[in-house]
Amino acid sequence: MGLFDQAGGLLGMLTGQGDQSNDSLAKQANVSSGDFGKIMTLGLPMIMKAINRNSQDKSGVDSLNQALNDHDKADQFDSIDQAVEQVDHEDGDKILNHVFKDQNEKEGIIDKIAQALNMDTASVKRTLVVLAPMVLMYLAHRRKSNNVSAEDMGQEADRASREVEGQARQEGGSLLERVLDAVTVDENQTEDDSLLGKVIDNVTVDEGGQDKQAKPSEEEDGGLLGGLFDKLTK
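^ thats the sequence. predicted structure below, dont judge the formating
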């Protein structure tokens, strides 16, 4: 059984089948387990969607496969905690620089997550930096486990992105729903349009169009988001 199979896949790894794995990730990011879970809930779908966006042509697929070759390390570890200990923050920051369209998009996403969760941008960035290498390790593991050819990795990235989004949507969570709705890819989108340009612009606005307080409540967001808050803050 693979490292990520033990943890129930990518989301299982990040939420933890026990608090230890999440605690290790949070410690690497120098945030509380609760804050890590909140940032992860918004940041993970964005990273996955951006990877998927970048894998729509041969050049992008080739770049993704090279990155996965460099992060094909899941078999080296007996536990998630061991893998987390090897996370390289500099590597994580470089991954984010490649995944997101440009520095403006990267910083804009970090700022918007921070605003939505009423957190500081430094904590959000540290968390995304920790998440990024783990995401590539997971995709490399998935490529190997599913015997995916290099040519088909673009389709596999799309499936992985949809699975993360689907699992999140299945549990609900109004905040997460609005974020995911904001990053849906429009087939008519021009090259100059940022996939994540609208992210969280509407997160703090309710269905009636009234501004809401940026910091979400567990009762308000329910579902996956509320469940993660409950689990990760225990």
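The first helix runs from residue 3 to 6.
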